[in-house]
Fold these 2 entries.
Entry 1:
Amino acid sequence: MKRFWIMGMALLLIACADQTENEQSDAVEKEDEEVELEVDEGEEGDSHLSKQDDEIEGTDPEDEMTNEEEEIEQVYEINTANWAVEPIEGEDVEEQVVLLTIDDAPHTYGVEMAHILADLDVPAIFFVNGHFINDEEGEQELKEIHELGFEIGNHTMSHPNLSEITEEEQMEEIVKLNERIEEIIGERPRFFRAPFGENTDFSNQVVATEQMTRMNWTYGYDWVADYQNAESLADIMVNAPELNNGANLLMHDREWTKDALEEIVAGLRDKGYQFVDPEQIK
């Protein structure tokens, strides 16, 4: 009887041990499954990051460059003896060119003139007066001209004859406008044109300090009474005796000039002239 009792206790202990072992084994397997699941999830996360990395690594730098404007080489300069645009010495570039410039902008027709030239794919410099951009409307017009891709030049704050005002006033007329233009479009002008073409020794110093290129013009006619209509103005601008390689053409923000623009451009092109991009001028 005692022997049977001992054998029963032994079998009970063995059964309990097996159960405990099985429970421990199940727990280990469960932990292994959880670990494996975490690893799988980690691998998926790494895979997601790898995909992003692949996308980044797969980006072609040349593709990004296509979205950026290419730097334009400056191959022309202004001849201050006659104010013509000429190739820089040693540069092999087109010589039969003209430069279009619009003064006293943006007064009344400047924005419309900019759109006409943009549609014709013709570059130009718009020389700005400060008193035309002293309100919100003027600011927006200047922004629009600039956003169309046109160079913005300095034509002084209030269009005085620089030879008739003090040096302090000359400084203010030039520098204050540079600051105002930069405030509106984020860029300081690279070109300066004095009202009436009247530069002074002092204004030349200011222009040099401001790192601007000084220019006047080769010819212009739209302020002359006989040419204050589109037909006669277009004719003289295309057939003027002063027209030659590098001619610096002066026009203004005026209705008859606006109306003559398309014919002027067509006539110059018919004569074989190309239009200089101001960004090409040093």
Note: Confidence is low (pLDDT under 50) at residues 1-59, 61-68.
Entry 2:
Amino acid sequence: MPITRRDLFMAAASMGTALATPPGLHQARAQGAYDDWGAVRELFPLSPDKVHMSAMLITSHPASVRDAIERHRGGLDADPVGYLETNGDKLTEASRNAAADYLGMHPAHVALTDSTTMGIGLMYTSLGLGEGDEVLTTEEDYYVTHTALDHLSQRTGATIRRIALFEDARGASREGIVDRIRTEIRPETRLLALTWVHSNTGLKLPVAEVAGVVREANADRDEDRQILFGLDAVHGFGVETENFFELGVDFYAAGCHKWLFGPRGTGIAAISERGMTLARPTIPTFDDSTVFSAWYRREAPPAGNNGLRMTPGGFKPFEHRWALPEAFGLHDAIGRARISARTHDLATMLKEALTSVQGVRVHTPTGPDMSSGIVAFDVDGRSSDEVVALLRDRSIIASVAPYPSALVRLAPSIRNTESEVERAASAVREFA
């Protein structure tokens, strides 16, 4: 049998009886309990004197997640080694299983991370590419994707090529984006790296249609020259309903502490069977016991790769990682389709209200087929920093996109109400 780090803990520890296994994972209330969106809002301990339209940045923990964190924290504080030895493996497995169920895939293809940034870095910088290989990405992608790909290029000699997908996000079309990518794929292209929902403009890419273009290009390619499709999925994850296979990607990274309303400092990276053949672990793991056991026995580790091996090892804020099932459970209890519809409805309401304000330009596409929960805009004669400050003076929490475009962003979510959307729009009217 493989020797795990837990086996070594058990052999070395001279503790008494370990704490009893904690209560079962939080059982979310029946979906009917959340028919009232006011009841959903009450799950979050957000200060009532502000309109919090910041789900795209970092979440407030809902009650079930908060309770799970405190339960695990209490166990770790009372008996750190005992609680970890008794519960660590099965709680980590439960978190991975919950993510896999949500994504519609096998748990062996899911790595647990700390953030979208870590997931992108683990996946892209590890790829087994070389000189003569090309990665195709876009000018509109974020710093994290661009920098991770630069690291890949520096390590392997692969070429990174950026293209512009559109001239104006609000005027972009699904057909135009898909055709643009189709025409830019070259024989040397081995990876297409995109973002599902752009955090600067709020534009949502037609990912499944782009995946169809990749399949078309791969039809005439040898297996070792196939194009893989990578996705920064964080601003679709927790809002849109498509799972991993419905999107048709090979690499998928997302933080769980945004639209999923999961524990802060948690994330996932999902990798297809084909993606696993090109990805390489970069940080030693303890999740795949066969790797540790091989080291312990001074043997070569088994061939192959999986999500456990791609999961960085080391001690973590375990109480947060182990509370992930509650976040996924809450989404299932409310209903993923209902969450998606509610988020889109509030975002559409906000876009329509802002569009009617003289001097305001909304950059996010209007329809839900090309947008998600982010609403990006600017105000004539005012910098975005000034607009955000003016909104915060009125207790509206907005942010500036960390891009050269520096648009103002409001991100309504299931934590918000129609009256809060109108309050935000009214605040903009006051100084536009």
Note: Residues 1-31 have pLDDT under 50 and may be disordered.
